[in-house]
């Protein structure tokens, strides 16, 4: 008990939220949907000047709106959805 078994690793790897060695929280996607419905959030996110500032700002704004996700989760989400996000926030 307490150690990951091969079955556990396979379950994680096959999870729809597994990406690049981390499990990506649904909360990032939920925050993305909230942002699309909130003009103020969109404008705040558009102020990011580069990838890293977008990630930092997303985590900060997410926390302010009751979400909990890591910088790494946001980075993975952004990389997977880059084209869509560029259209929505540029």
Order of the strands making up the biggest sheet: 1-2
Q: H/E order of the elements?
A: HEEHHHHH
Q: Based on DSSP secondary structure assignment, what is the total number of beta strands?
A: 2
Percent of residues in helices? 55-70%
Instruction: Please report the distance between the alpha carbons of the first and last residues.
Output: 48 Å
Q: What fraction strand?
A: under 5%
Total domain count? 1
Q: Count the DSSP helices.
A: 6
List the uncertain runs.
3-16
Average pLDDT reading: 78
Please state the overall shape, judged from the principal axes of the Cα atoms.
globular
Kindly list the characteristics that best describe this protein:
90 residues, mainly alpha, two-stranded antiparallel ribbon, 4% strand, globular
Brief characterization of the structure:
This protein is 67% helix and 4% strand. It is mainly α and 90 residues long.
């Amino acid at each position: 008990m307490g150690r990951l078994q091969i079955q556990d690793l396979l379950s994680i790897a096959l999870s729809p939220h597994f990406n690049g060695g981390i499990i990506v929280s649904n909360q990032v996607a939920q925050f993305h949907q909230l942002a699309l419905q909130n003009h103020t959030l969109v404008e705040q996110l558009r102020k990011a000047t580069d990838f890293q500032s977008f990630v930092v700002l997303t985590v900060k704004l997410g926390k302010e709106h009751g979400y909990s996700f890591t910088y790494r989760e946001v980075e993975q989400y952004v990389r997977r959805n880059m084209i869509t996000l560029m259209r929505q926030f540029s």
